[in-house]
Specification:
alpha+beta; 5-stranded antiparallel beta sheet; globular; 16 strands; 32% helix; 9 helices
Length: 301
């Protein structure tokens, strides 16, 4: 097969591993910079152009699209879908997962465990917003934040009110969530591929930090999942419509709760922690599912 990896940096660990895995399994793999693609929208023969030439037909694309370029990146993926190319994660599903509020609303509708969450633009009574998620301490998140940036733990009611007022003064969209104290600053990243959890790791926050992101100095180790945790991760991926994703779960006293579904998860941490060849499993998923015009949404919706 001919596979394109949509990535802005061919030197990134995840991109390199996917190239290596694809080539080792006998496929031609090209890295295409998403932001350098451009499209002829009006033609009845849709194409993607790159460096002054139309790109060849690809059997499959693997979107590695950063959060800051979601709009343009998903437009490029959609164009490939219009051309009949299989995308391991469809443009609609990527857009859905990048909208944190929409993600939580969809997960809630399916009855998937989540922390109590509130969202408001400018509530008249901030104290009621905090009370509605169980009171302080609470976690306050920017909707557009990534890698733990824009996530604040407010220990007291007064601190929470001050932080919310500050964010609102900046016209920022925020979520307010209950703090899962029993998680102990740890979460579980489950990598779901083709409806199965193929690898999982526990991420522990650094001392004095409550965010467990590896970018924030957290550490990773292998973990054994309970059947409920495994089911929660698979159900979350299915709800988002993602064939490949990272599902971040906290161990709450009420059971597993989903914090986020990441449509472009990094591979370095989980491959290092588990010793599994995750990149090859992703390529094998493409081998199994890539057929012309097989995308469910056909770039619509």
């Amino acid at each position: 097969m001919r596979i394109a990896i949509l990535s802005r940096n061919p030197r990134l660990y995840s991109t390199r591993r996917l190239v290596e895995a694809g080539k080792s399994l006998g496929h031609q793999v090209d890295v295409v910079d998403t932001m350098h693609c451009y499209m002829d929208i009006t033609s009845n023969r849709p194409s993607v152009r790159y460096n002054g030439k139309p790109l060849p037909y690809y059997d499959a694309v693997i979107p590695r699209i950063g959060a800051s370029v979601t709009f343009y990146g998903t437009s490029v993926v959609r164009q490939f879908e219009m051309m009949g190319t299989y995308s391991i994660n469809e443009s609609v599903a990527i857009s859905r997962s990048r909208d944190k509020l929409r993600s939580l609303q969809l997960l809630s509708r399916k009855g998937i465990g989540m922390p109590r969450t509130g969202f408001a633009h400018h509530p008249d009574k901030i104290d009621d917003l905090i009370k509605n998620v169980g009171g302080a301490p609470v976690v306050i998140k920017l909707l557009e934040g990534t890698q733990g940036i824009g996530v604040v733990l407010a220990d007291t009611q007064k601190a929470a009110e001050a932080i919310i007022e500050a964010f609102m003064g900046l016209k920022a969209n925020i979520l307010v969530q209950e703090y899962i104290k029993e998680a102990g600053g740890a979460d579980i990243r489950c990598l779901v591929v083709d409806g199965k959890v193929i690898a999982a790791m526990k991420r522990q926050a650094a001392p004095g930090e409550f965010r467990s992101n590896l970018h924030r100095g957290g550490s990773a180790s292998i973990v054994r999942l309970s059947p409920a945790e495994r089911k929660t991760a698979v159900d979350a991926a299915k709800t988002m419509g993602l064939s490949m994703c990272g599902v971040d779960i906290l161990r709450a006293s009420s059971g597993p709760v989903v914090m986020e579904v990441n449509s472009s998860p990094g591979l370095e941490g989980i491959e290092t922690a588990t010793g599994k060849d995750v990149a090859s499993m992703i390529i094998q998923c493409i081998e199994k599912n890539a057929k012309p015009n097989s995308n469910k949404t056909k770039g619509k919706g």
